[in-house]
Specification:
One of its GO terms (cellular component) is NuA4 histone acetyltransferase complex. The protein has about 375 residues and is an all-alpha fold. The protein has 13 helices and no strands. The protein starts with about 25 loop residues before the first helix and ends in a 7-residue tail after the last helix.
Length: about 375
């Protein structure tokens, strides 16, 4: 149903266009005397005053000075007590003689002149004679025996300033010290923040010494961690050796009671280059004399043939030295010698438990074994 309804016609907005007229004397009235300044334009408080004083005739300097002083901004704001004092004053209030009445604007101007004149000598104040001179020059208020308005205003201003213990204008107040705990006093000085994109780095001797000290500390930490790793490794090795010694002692006791019990092959950790010999020992494979004979190979080194002609006693010495432990006291046949029958009259050697730590660590440091995975 909504599609069947006709669309509403949009009405055009009537925007009035101003009528332009040519002014014949425009170029004469508005002279093209604008010069582009070299800096940004700043609005001054006496902008209108300066323009009006420039338009005034030069032959009247007193009028120009009056206009200049009158164009300055009055920064003192009259409070309720100020208006009450002015209204209830017997000489300058509402009930006084109209010739000597003091308007609120003139009263505020007088207080403002006194504050700005005492700005450079804060917390001190100017004298009464100096105040009379300022009033006579700025607002043309002359002191006379019958007209002592300047004296009364000066005394009121000094009493109010002493009661407040500071100037009437906020911009002349002293800076709040850091050790002042009064919460009503603000704008305490603080360090000016400096925004830097990155820290300026200098390649000096102090930085070099710090880096050298840091490198020395890291080297010490790495050395300590390496010592801890070696200590834990040797602890594990000691536990394995003690376990193997205990198992071998149990087996020796059982074999003494049961001679038919097969000989136990202890698990001795060999180095990687001697893994082949360890496999032969663990499988108890005793090779024959034909297997012992060396095969013919290409002559690469003459020392290889000289080693093959050595006796078996020297061959035993040339084998890799194992760690000196109580486990190795058990005679284990190698593939270069035949198993020999042990005489029955010989006593059975039982290894000491636990082994001496001095001998154990001396053997480990001399030729540390490698664990097989």
């Amino acid at each position: 149903m909504a599609d069947d309804q006709p669309a509403k016609i949009k009405r055009k907005k009537n925007i009035p266009i101003p009528v332009n007229k040519l002014v014949p004397n425009y170029e004469k009235d508005v002279l093209p005397d604008f010069h582009l300044p070299t800096s940004y334009i700043k609005l001054s408080l006496n902008f209108q005053t300066s323009s009006s004083s420039s338009a005034a005739p030069v032959s009247a300097p007193s009028n120009a000075s009056t206009a200049t002083s009158a164009g300055e901004k009055v920064e003192v704001d009259l409070e309720v007590e100020d208006l009450a004092w002015l209204r209830e004053h017997p000489r300058y209030g509402e009930a006084a003689d109209p010739r000597y009445q003091l308007t609120p604007d003139t009263f505020a101007k007088m207080l403002d002149l006194l504050e700005k004149a005492s700005a450079l000598i804060n917390p001190g104040v100017i004298t009464l004679a100096e105040a009379d001179e300022i009033f006579s020059k700025q607002i043309h208020v002359v002191k006379s025996p019958c007209h002592k308005v300047s004296t009364d205003v000066y005394n009121y201003w000094v009493a109010k300033r002493m009661a407040l213990k500071r100037p009437l204008l906020r911009k002349y107040w002293p800076q709040t010290p850091l050790n002042d705990t009064n919460p009503h006093l603000v704008f305490r000085p603080r360090e000016k923040e400096r925004y830097k994109l990155r820290k300026h780095r200098k390649n000096d001797m102090e930085g070099l010494r710090k880096l050298q000290q840091l490198r020395h500390d890291f080297d010490r930490v790495r050395h300590l961690l390496d010592l801890v790793r070696r200590r834990e490794k040797y602890k594990r090795l000691l536990v394995d050796f003690l376990d193997e010694t205990r198992r071998q002692q149990v087996h020796d006791c059982l074999q003494a009671a049961l001679p038919s019990l097969p000989t136990r092959q202890p698990k001795v950790h060999y180095q990687k280059k001697h893994q082949l010999e360890s496999q032969h020992v663990s499988n108890c494979q005793i090779p024959s004399e034909d297997d012992i004979k060396p095969r013919k190979k290409k002559k690469k080194n003459k020392n290889l043939h000289s080693d093959q002609q050595l006796p078996s006693s020297l061959l035993e010495v040339s084998q890799p030295a194992l760690a000196f432990t109580d486990v190795q006291r058990v005679k284990v046949p190698t593939f270069l010698e035949k198993p020999m029958a042990r005489p029955l009259d010989l006593p059975i050697y039982v290894a000491s438990y636990p082994p001496s730590s001095t001998e154990l660590y001396a053997a480990i440091f001399q030729d540390p074994p490698v664990f097989r995975g």
